[in-house]
Specification:
Blueprint: H1 12-32, H2 39-65, H3 77-83, H4 91-107, H5 110-129, H6 134-155, H7 163-169, E1 171-174, E2 179-182, E3 186-188, E4 193-195, E5 200-202, E6 207-209, H8 214-244, H9 246-257, H10 263-311
Helix pairs in contact: 1-10, 2-6, 2-8, 8-10
Length: 312
Protein backbone atom coordinates (compact mmCIF):
# COMPACT_ATOMS: atom_id res chain seq x y z
CA UNK A 1 0.00 0.00 0.00
CA UNK A 2 1.59 3.26 -1.17
CA UNK A 3 1.08 6.19 1.19
CA UNK A 4 2.31 9.00 -1.11
CA UNK A 5 4.38 9.81 -4.17
CA UNK A 6 7.70 10.01 -2.35
CA UNK A 7 7.57 6.42 -1.21
CA UNK A 8 10.01 4.11 -2.98
CA UNK A 9 10.15 2.94 -5.69
CA UNK A 10 10.02 6.15 -7.73
CA UNK A 11 8.33 6.09 -11.12
CA UNK A 12 10.66 6.82 -14.08
CA UNK A 13 8.38 9.64 -15.25
CA UNK A 14 8.61 11.22 -11.79
CA UNK A 15 12.42 11.25 -12.04
CA UNK A 16 12.15 12.71 -15.56
CA UNK A 17 9.76 15.46 -14.39
CA UNK A 18 12.03 16.51 -11.52
CA UNK A 19 15.14 16.39 -13.71
CA UNK A 20 13.58 18.48 -16.50
CA UNK A 21 12.27 21.01 -13.97
CA UNK A 22 15.69 21.45 -12.34
CA UNK A 23 17.45 21.63 -15.73
CA UNK A 24 15.09 24.31 -17.06
CA UNK A 25 15.31 26.35 -13.86
CA UNK A 26 19.12 26.22 -13.95
CA UNK A 27 19.16 27.17 -17.65
CA UNK A 28 16.89 30.14 -17.06
CA UNK A 29 19.07 31.75 -14.38
CA UNK A 30 22.34 31.02 -16.20
CA UNK A 31 21.57 31.23 -19.95
CA UNK A 32 18.23 33.08 -20.28
CA UNK A 33 17.80 35.92 -17.78
CA UNK A 34 21.31 37.46 -18.01
CA UNK A 35 20.93 37.97 -21.80
CA UNK A 36 17.43 39.45 -22.04
CA UNK A 37 18.76 42.95 -22.65
CA UNK A 38 19.11 45.84 -20.28
CA UNK A 39 19.52 45.42 -16.55
CA UNK A 40 15.90 46.44 -15.97
CA UNK A 41 14.61 43.72 -18.29
CA UNK A 42 16.83 41.13 -16.62
CA UNK A 43 15.45 42.06 -13.19
CA UNK A 44 11.86 41.94 -14.46
CA UNK A 45 12.42 38.48 -15.96
CA UNK A 46 13.88 37.18 -12.69
CA UNK A 47 11.10 38.76 -10.59
CA UNK A 48 8.45 37.15 -12.80
CA UNK A 49 10.11 33.74 -12.94
CA UNK A 50 11.23 33.28 -9.33
CA UNK A 51 7.82 33.28 -7.57
CA UNK A 52 6.31 31.02 -10.24
CA UNK A 53 9.15 28.48 -10.15
CA UNK A 54 9.01 28.49 -6.33
CA UNK A 55 5.26 27.90 -6.44
CA UNK A 56 5.67 24.96 -8.84
CA UNK A 57 8.47 23.49 -6.71
CA UNK A 58 6.55 23.52 -3.43
CA UNK A 59 3.22 22.49 -5.00
CA UNK A 60 4.84 19.51 -6.67
CA UNK A 61 6.31 18.33 -3.37
CA UNK A 62 3.02 18.99 -1.58
CA UNK A 63 0.87 17.13 -4.14
CA UNK A 64 3.20 14.14 -4.09
CA UNK A 65 3.45 14.14 -0.28
CA UNK A 66 -0.32 14.24 0.26
CA UNK A 67 -1.93 10.92 1.12
CA UNK A 68 -5.30 11.07 -0.73
CA UNK A 69 -6.58 7.80 0.72
CA UNK A 70 -10.16 7.37 1.87
CA UNK A 71 -10.40 8.18 5.62
CA UNK A 72 -11.64 4.67 6.31
CA UNK A 73 -8.43 3.16 4.95
CA UNK A 74 -6.52 4.51 7.95
CA UNK A 75 -8.74 2.39 10.22
CA UNK A 76 -8.64 -0.79 8.14
CA UNK A 77 -6.95 -3.93 9.42
CA UNK A 78 -4.78 -3.98 6.31
CA UNK A 79 -3.45 -0.49 7.02
CA UNK A 80 -2.93 -1.24 10.71
CA UNK A 81 -0.98 -4.38 9.86
CA UNK A 82 1.34 -2.38 7.61
CA UNK A 83 1.73 0.90 9.50
CA UNK A 84 0.32 0.35 12.98
CA UNK A 85 -1.90 3.23 14.06
CA UNK A 86 -0.55 5.50 11.32
CA UNK A 87 1.04 7.78 13.90
CA UNK A 88 4.42 7.93 15.58
CA UNK A 89 4.39 5.67 18.60
CA UNK A 90 5.75 6.58 22.02
CA UNK A 91 9.04 4.83 22.95
CA UNK A 92 7.24 2.99 25.79
CA UNK A 93 4.66 1.69 23.30
CA UNK A 94 7.44 0.64 20.94
CA UNK A 95 9.18 -1.28 23.73
CA UNK A 96 5.89 -2.86 24.72
CA UNK A 97 5.24 -3.89 21.10
CA UNK A 98 8.71 -5.40 20.80
CA UNK A 99 8.25 -7.34 24.04
CA UNK A 100 4.85 -8.61 22.88
CA UNK A 101 6.37 -9.81 19.62
CA UNK A 102 9.14 -11.51 21.57
CA UNK A 103 6.62 -13.31 23.75
CA UNK A 104 4.68 -14.46 20.71
CA UNK A 105 7.81 -15.83 19.08
CA UNK A 106 8.83 -17.48 22.30
CA UNK A 107 5.43 -19.11 22.64
CA UNK A 108 5.46 -20.62 19.15
CA UNK A 109 8.14 -23.13 20.05
CA UNK A 110 11.85 -23.57 19.90
CA UNK A 111 11.89 -24.64 16.26
CA UNK A 112 10.22 -21.49 14.95
CA UNK A 113 12.50 -19.36 17.13
CA UNK A 114 15.59 -20.91 15.53
CA UNK A 115 14.11 -20.44 12.05
CA UNK A 116 13.36 -16.80 12.82
CA UNK A 117 16.90 -16.20 14.09
CA UNK A 118 18.43 -17.94 11.06
CA UNK A 119 16.30 -15.91 8.65
CA UNK A 120 17.22 -12.65 10.41
CA UNK A 121 20.92 -13.50 10.34
CA UNK A 122 20.70 -14.39 6.65
CA UNK A 123 18.95 -11.13 5.75
CA UNK A 124 21.51 -9.09 7.71
CA UNK A 125 24.36 -10.88 5.94
CA UNK A 126 22.83 -10.23 2.55
CA UNK A 127 22.28 -6.54 3.31
CA UNK A 128 25.93 -6.15 4.35
CA UNK A 129 27.19 -7.83 1.20
CA UNK A 130 25.14 -5.65 -1.13
CA UNK A 131 27.03 -2.91 -2.97
CA UNK A 132 25.25 0.34 -3.80
CA UNK A 133 24.43 0.64 -7.47
CA UNK A 134 24.05 3.76 -9.57
CA UNK A 135 20.26 3.51 -9.41
CA UNK A 136 20.20 3.31 -5.62
CA UNK A 137 22.57 6.28 -5.39
CA UNK A 138 20.22 8.34 -7.57
CA UNK A 139 17.21 7.41 -5.44
CA UNK A 140 19.16 8.30 -2.30
CA UNK A 141 19.97 11.73 -3.69
CA UNK A 142 16.27 12.36 -4.44
CA UNK A 143 15.40 11.31 -0.88
CA UNK A 144 18.05 13.63 0.52
CA UNK A 145 16.66 16.61 -1.42
CA UNK A 146 12.92 16.08 -1.09
CA UNK A 147 12.35 14.05 2.09
CA UNK A 148 12.70 16.97 4.58
CA UNK A 149 10.09 19.01 2.69
CA UNK A 150 7.89 15.94 2.25
CA UNK A 151 7.98 15.32 6.00
CA UNK A 152 6.87 18.91 6.70
CA UNK A 153 4.01 18.75 4.20
CA UNK A 154 2.86 15.28 5.23
CA UNK A 155 2.64 16.36 8.87
CA UNK A 156 0.22 19.10 7.82
CA UNK A 157 -2.25 16.67 6.26
CA UNK A 158 -5.37 16.10 8.40
CA UNK A 159 -6.72 12.57 8.80
CA UNK A 160 -10.20 13.07 10.11
CA UNK A 161 -13.36 11.20 9.19
CA UNK A 162 -16.39 13.43 9.35
CA UNK A 163 -19.51 11.65 10.58
CA UNK A 164 -21.66 14.11 8.64
CA UNK A 165 -19.79 13.23 5.44
CA UNK A 166 -20.33 9.54 6.16
CA UNK A 167 -24.08 9.93 6.67
CA UNK A 168 -24.54 12.13 3.58
CA UNK A 169 -22.46 10.19 1.06
CA UNK A 170 -23.10 6.64 2.23
CA UNK A 171 -20.70 3.76 2.67
CA UNK A 172 -19.51 0.82 0.58
CA UNK A 173 -17.30 -2.11 1.54
CA UNK A 174 -14.02 -2.55 -0.31
CA UNK A 175 -12.83 -6.15 -0.19
CA UNK A 176 -9.31 -5.13 -1.22
CA UNK A 177 -8.91 -2.52 1.55
CA UNK A 178 -10.94 -4.70 3.96
CA UNK A 179 -12.94 -1.73 5.23
CA UNK A 180 -16.00 0.41 4.47
CA UNK A 181 -15.22 3.42 2.28
CA UNK A 182 -17.14 6.44 1.07
CA UNK A 183 -19.50 6.27 -1.88
CA UNK A 184 -17.31 8.18 -4.34
CA UNK A 185 -14.05 6.47 -3.40
CA UNK A 186 -12.30 4.20 -5.87
CA UNK A 187 -9.60 1.61 -5.35
CA UNK A 188 -6.32 2.41 -7.10
CA UNK A 189 -4.53 -0.83 -7.96
CA UNK A 190 -1.19 0.95 -8.32
CA UNK A 191 -1.29 2.42 -4.80
CA UNK A 192 -3.39 -0.51 -3.49
CA UNK A 193 -5.84 1.69 -1.54
CA UNK A 194 -9.17 3.46 -1.93
CA UNK A 195 -8.90 7.17 -2.73
CA UNK A 196 -11.57 9.64 -1.67
CA UNK A 197 -12.93 11.40 -4.77
CA UNK A 198 -10.54 9.50 -7.04
CA UNK A 199 -9.75 11.38 -10.27
CA UNK A 200 -6.72 9.55 -11.69
CA UNK A 201 -3.29 8.18 -10.81
CA UNK A 202 -0.64 10.66 -11.95
CA UNK A 203 2.57 8.91 -12.98
CA UNK A 204 4.47 12.22 -13.06
CA UNK A 205 3.68 12.72 -9.37
CA UNK A 206 3.73 8.99 -8.59
CA UNK A 207 0.59 9.61 -6.54
CA UNK A 208 -3.17 9.49 -6.83
CA UNK A 209 -5.17 12.66 -7.39
CA UNK A 210 -8.27 12.79 -5.24
CA UNK A 211 -10.35 15.05 -3.07
CA UNK A 212 -7.52 15.95 -0.71
CA UNK A 213 -5.00 17.11 -3.33
CA UNK A 214 -7.10 17.92 -6.41
CA UNK A 215 -7.10 21.70 -5.86
CA UNK A 216 -3.34 21.74 -5.31
CA UNK A 217 -2.93 19.63 -8.45
CA UNK A 218 -5.03 22.07 -10.48
CA UNK A 219 -2.99 25.06 -9.25
CA UNK A 220 0.18 23.11 -10.02
CA UNK A 221 -0.96 22.57 -13.61
CA UNK A 222 -1.81 26.26 -14.02
CA UNK A 223 1.46 27.54 -12.58
CA UNK A 224 3.50 24.95 -14.52
CA UNK A 225 1.90 26.00 -17.81
CA UNK A 226 2.54 29.68 -17.07
CA UNK A 227 6.14 28.86 -16.12
CA UNK A 228 6.80 26.96 -19.36
CA UNK A 229 5.17 29.67 -21.50
CA UNK A 230 7.26 32.34 -19.76
CA UNK A 231 10.48 30.39 -20.28
CA UNK A 232 9.64 29.66 -23.93
CA UNK A 233 8.87 33.32 -24.65
CA UNK A 234 12.08 34.55 -23.02
CA UNK A 235 14.07 31.84 -24.83
CA UNK A 236 12.71 32.97 -28.21
CA UNK A 237 13.45 36.60 -27.28
CA UNK A 238 17.04 35.76 -26.34
CA UNK A 239 17.56 33.87 -29.62
CA UNK A 240 16.26 36.86 -31.59
CA UNK A 241 18.67 39.18 -29.75
CA UNK A 242 21.48 36.73 -30.43
CA UNK A 243 20.99 36.83 -34.21
CA UNK A 244 20.20 40.56 -34.44
CA UNK A 245 23.14 41.76 -32.31
CA UNK A 246 25.60 38.93 -32.85
CA UNK A 247 28.84 40.84 -32.18
CA UNK A 248 27.62 42.45 -28.98
CA UNK A 249 26.09 39.17 -27.91
CA UNK A 250 29.35 37.26 -28.37
CA UNK A 251 31.08 39.77 -26.09
CA UNK A 252 28.38 39.32 -23.44
CA UNK A 253 28.67 35.54 -23.65
CA UNK A 254 32.42 35.65 -23.05
CA UNK A 255 32.10 38.17 -20.21
CA UNK A 256 29.27 36.31 -18.40
CA UNK A 257 29.95 32.65 -19.21
CA UNK A 258 33.69 32.60 -19.80
CA UNK A 259 35.95 32.25 -22.81
CA UNK A 260 35.09 28.55 -23.20
CA UNK A 261 31.61 29.52 -24.43
CA UNK A 262 30.94 30.95 -27.89
CA UNK A 263 27.82 31.89 -29.81
CA UNK A 264 27.24 28.46 -31.40
CA UNK A 265 27.15 26.31 -28.20
CA UNK A 266 25.16 29.03 -26.45
CA UNK A 267 22.51 28.99 -29.20
CA UNK A 268 22.37 25.18 -29.04
CA UNK A 269 21.78 25.21 -25.27
CA UNK A 270 19.15 27.97 -25.36
CA UNK A 271 17.35 26.51 -28.38
CA UNK A 272 17.29 23.03 -26.81
CA UNK A 273 15.85 24.34 -23.53
CA UNK A 274 13.31 26.49 -25.37
CA UNK A 275 12.12 23.56 -27.50
CA UNK A 276 11.96 21.36 -24.41
CA UNK A 277 9.81 23.95 -22.62
CA UNK A 278 7.50 24.24 -25.63
CA UNK A 279 7.10 20.47 -25.96
CA UNK A 280 6.45 20.09 -22.22
CA UNK A 281 3.80 22.83 -22.27
CA UNK A 282 1.61 20.97 -24.81
CA UNK A 283 0.50 17.99 -22.64
CA UNK A 284 0.17 20.24 -19.58
CA UNK A 285 -2.06 22.65 -21.53
CA UNK A 286 -4.18 19.77 -22.81
CA UNK A 287 -4.59 18.31 -19.32
CA UNK A 288 -5.35 21.71 -17.80
CA UNK A 289 -8.07 22.55 -20.32
CA UNK A 290 -9.55 19.08 -19.87
CA UNK A 291 -9.85 19.64 -16.11
CA UNK A 292 -11.30 23.10 -16.71
CA UNK A 293 -14.03 21.51 -18.84
CA UNK A 294 -14.68 18.94 -16.11
CA UNK A 295 -14.97 21.64 -13.45
CA UNK A 296 -17.32 23.69 -15.64
CA UNK A 297 -19.43 20.59 -16.30
CA UNK A 298 -19.71 19.78 -12.58
CA UNK A 299 -20.52 23.41 -11.76
CA UNK A 300 -23.20 23.53 -14.48
CA UNK A 301 -24.78 20.27 -13.30
CA UNK A 302 -24.87 21.46 -9.69
CA UNK A 303 -26.41 24.78 -10.81
CA UNK A 304 -29.15 22.95 -12.73
CA UNK A 305 -29.75 20.68 -9.76
CA UNK A 306 -30.20 23.62 -7.39
CA UNK A 307 -32.59 25.28 -9.86
CA UNK A 308 -34.69 22.12 -9.99
CA UNK A 309 -34.80 21.99 -6.19
CA UNK A 310 -35.92 25.59 -5.97
CA UNK A 311 -38.66 25.04 -8.54
CA UNK A 312 -39.96 22.01 -6.66
Amino acid sequence: MRRNGWQLPYHPLQVVAVSVFLALAFAFYVFFAPFVGRKVFQDVAVWLYTPVVSCVFFLYIWCAATDPADPGVFKSMKYLRLYGSGKHKHPKECRQTISDVGLEIEGTGEKQEHEFAAASEKSMTQSKNKTPSCCSATLSSFLLIFYPLYFVFSCCQPREWSEQQTSEEGMFFCSLCEVEVLKYSKHCRICDKCVDGFDHHCRWLNNCIGKRNYMKFFILLTSSLFLLILQSAIGVLVLVFCFVERKEFSIQIVSKLGSSFSVVPYVIVVASCTILAMVASLPIAQLLFFHILLIMKVAFNSFIFHLMLQND
